[in-house]
From TrEMBL:
Domain of life assignment: Bacteria
Positions in coiled-coil regions: none
InterPro entries with a match to the protein in the record: NTF2-like_dom_sf, SnoaL-like
Annotated organism of origin: Undibacterium fentianense
First and last residue of the signal peptide: none
Domain SnoaL-like: 9-110
Record-linked Gene3D superfamilies: 3.10.450.50
Name of the protein in question: Nuclear transport factor 2 family protein
Length: 155
């Protein structure tokens, strides 16, 4: 029998498979904190807007998840998203390890970890391969993502 917080993680990723951002956000506490190598520190509404933006723009998207573990306070999962990166039209397979902290039956902290250089090689081709490890390039990726999120959130 799965722990209720493991079931919550499963519910989150099943919603993600359906590109149902509202159901994903319903798994979060109102003051959710999220970070990954691109979005370093999102809070509250920003996190929901990020998922709404990403799911609304998803092309050729699929997601698989496994290795769900959870207890009363923390959990983890592994997931792989495959999609077409809209800015370049290139196919990306992003392998991600997630860690969660729970509070009152909701996800309070969500941290995703993946190799940004590997992602940039897939998303940007030879430019990502040659320059994707450089902090300047990684910061440019982050800046563009933040800009896209601000623009999406303002609508």
């Amino acid at each position: 029998m799965m722990h209720p917080n493991a079931l919550l993680i499963q519910k989150f990723y099943e919603a993600f498979q359906r590109l149902d951002a509202q159901a994903m956000v319903a798994c979060y506490a109102e003051d959710i904190q999220f970070s990954d190598p691109v979005f370093l520190d999102l809070k509250g509404q920003q996190v929901g807007d990020m998922w709404r933006m990403l799911t609304s723009r998803a092309q050729d998207f699929s997601l698989v998840f496994d290795q769900i573990e959870a207890n009363e306070t923390e959990g983890r999962a592994h997931w792989v998203a495959s999609y077409c990166f809209s800015q370049t039209g290139r196919q990306v397979v992003n392998d991600i390890h997630a860690k969660f902290t729970f509070r009152d039956g909701k996800i309070a902290v969500h941290r995703d970890h993946f190799d940004l250089w590997k992602w940039s090689r897939q998303a940007m081709g030879w430019k990502g391969y040659l320059m994707g490890r450089l902090p300047l390039v990684q910061n440019k990726i982050r800046h563009q993502a933040e800009k896209n999120l601000r623009k999406f959130s303002s609508k």
